[in-house]
Design goal:
The chain contains 16 helices and twelve strands. An eight-stranded mixed sheet has the order 3-4-8-5-9-12-10-11, with helices on both faces. Strands 1-2 form a two-stranded antiparallel sheet. Strands 6-7 form a two-stranded antiparallel ribbon. The longest helix has 18 residues. The model has no long low-confidence stretch (mean pLDDT 95). A hairpin with a 5-residue loop joins β3 and β4. The protein is globular, with a radius of gyration of 22 Å. The chain has three domains: 59 residues, Muramoyl-pentapeptide Carboxypeptidase, domain 1 (Orthogonal Bundle), CATH 1.10.101.10; 47 residues, Membrane-bound Lytic Murein Transglycosylase D, Chain A; 211 residues, 3-Layer(aba) Sandwich (Aminopeptidase). The chain is α/β, with parallel strands linked by helices. Bound molecules: zinc ion. Zinc ion binds next to loops. Zinc ion (ZN) binds next to loops.
Length: 427
């Protein structure tokens, strides 16, 4: 896939400025604070980078400079073997290891490199950045980078959003026990998308090198189970929050009318691009959720809590249900951000082992296992899953504070959840 990025220069702002700043910092150029504001210091860093790479040092990130950045951001380069090359010399040139090159090129024989042969060379940088605004374009770039580096992962598309963006699925493992994790049903809660993406990267690295994570044998989990991850259920909503409302949005006028809060989309928008709250659009007590709406001040499409005109009215929820029905998930995890709480109850249903597994997750993360049904425990993904399959489903609320949580909470959230993500397939 080709991702076209806008030109950035002094005065530019937004998620892609943040991305460039994060990258420059990582490869040894100091852009100043990673704040999404393209100032003098970022310009100086771009000029230094351009100079070192034989580009015109104009301090503007146009198509040529983006091209250079993109190969770093994807995390790999395609290299054509020249006379005298060895994997060791290439590893040195790209700040990586011979082992990482071999992982990215199954079947490559290091003793018989052919001149003219094209190989994938991963950089010694991680693919998934965890200090930036994680837009849909960045998600796509990272999936491409992970696929190149770890060709053994399988990626698929569960369906499309209203605006035609892909609902990507990444599968880890080849075993018969299936579990599913998803994030970002709610647009403001996008921080959980890089949490799942970073888990994918760490899990793949451990699988490739045969190492463990927190004492868990990753190759063993890989052989016994298949973990299906949908890291961004609501890409249109996430981009509205992170990139703002653009004039070419087909819902431009409606969105302005639907946002009656007087506050920017970046602070209030949880719904999909048609103003439907996807986690109130599933057929699990949908009518009861609907009845609550007037008491919540909800009378139609808007930033939050509108359940849509009828259950599964949205392509995103329809895709999630179709995807789920194509599998036999032992359990599911739906990631949200409010409260460091794990919700597991749906109505008064008694699901075998659901409490016990929930307690194990609570111990692993330090989160509280909620003993009361979630006040909004209607019409959500986990509610629908529990009702449909009578198997355990969990809503995990990962952070504390006002949405959107600052990306500075990433490390805390990741480290609290990593063991849950390792445990779920084998518990
Ligand atoms: Zn949520």
């Amino acid at each position: 896939m080709v991702i076209v990025m806008e030109t950035l220069t002094v005065g530019s702002r937004g998620p892609y400025v943040k991305l460039v700043q994060s990258l420059l910092a990582r490869i040894g150029y100091n852009p100043g604070p990673i704040d999404g504001v393209f100032g003098q210091q970022t310009q100086q860093a771009v000029i230094a980078f351009q100079r070192d790479n034989g580009l015109t040092p104009d301090g503007i990130v146009g198509p040529l400079t983006w091209n250079y950045f993109n190969s770093f951001l994807r995390g790999y380069d395609t290299y054509t073997i020249r006379p005298g090359d060895t994997l060791f010399s290439l590893a040195q040139k790209y700040y990586t290891t011979v082992n990482a090159i071999l992982t990215a090129n199954p079947g490559l024989n290091p003793l018989y490199l052919r001149v003219g042969q094209r190989i994938t060379v991963p950089y010694g940088l991680d693919v998934v950045f965890t200090d930036i605004d994680y837009t849909y374009s960045i998600l796509e770039m990272d999936i491409e980078g992970l696929e190149a580096r770890y060709p053994f992962i399988e990626t698929d598309i569960a369906g499309k959003s209203v605006l035609g963006k892909n609902l990507y699925v990444i599968r880890l493992g080849t075993g018969p026990v299936e579990v599913h994790y998803n994030a970002s049903h709610h647009a403001l809660e996008w921080i959980n998308t890089p949490v799942l993406m970073k888990f994918i990267e760490n899990f793949c690295r451990a699988y490739a090198t045969g190492s463990t994570i927190r004492g868990y044998n990753v190759r063993d989990i890989w052989a016994r189970s298949s973990i299906y991850i949908i890291p961004m259920v609501n890409p249109d909503g996430v981009d509205l929050v992170l990139e703002g409302l653009k004039p070419d949005n087909p819902y431009y006028q409606q969105l302005l009318a639907w946002n009656t809060t007087g506050r920017p989309f970046s602070q209030v928008w949880q719904a999909n691009i048609r103003g439907t709250d996807l986690n109130r659009n599933y057929p699990a007590c949908w009518e009861q959720a609907k009845e609550q709406e007037p008491s919540l001040g909800v009378y139609g499409p808007g930033p939050t809590r509108y359940g849509g005109p009828y259950p599964l009215s949205e392509p995103e929820t329809q895709s999630m249900v179709n995807f789920t029905r194509q599998h036999s998930f032992k359990l599911v995890l739906a990631y949200h951000t409010q409260g460091r709480v794990i919700y597991w109850l749906y109505k008064n249903m008694q699901i075998p082992r659901a409490r016990e597994i929930g307690e194990t997750f609570a111990r692993a993360s330090g989160y509280t296992l909620s003993q009361t049904p979630y006040e909004a425990a209607y019409a959500g993904y986990k509610d629908w899953f529990i009702e449909e399959y009578q198997r355990p489903g969990y809503t995990i609320e990962t952070g504390i504070g006002t949405n959107p949580l600052p990306i500075s909470q990433f490390d805390t959230i990741y480290s609290r959840n990593e063991e849950i993500l390792l445990l779920a397939p084998i518990i």
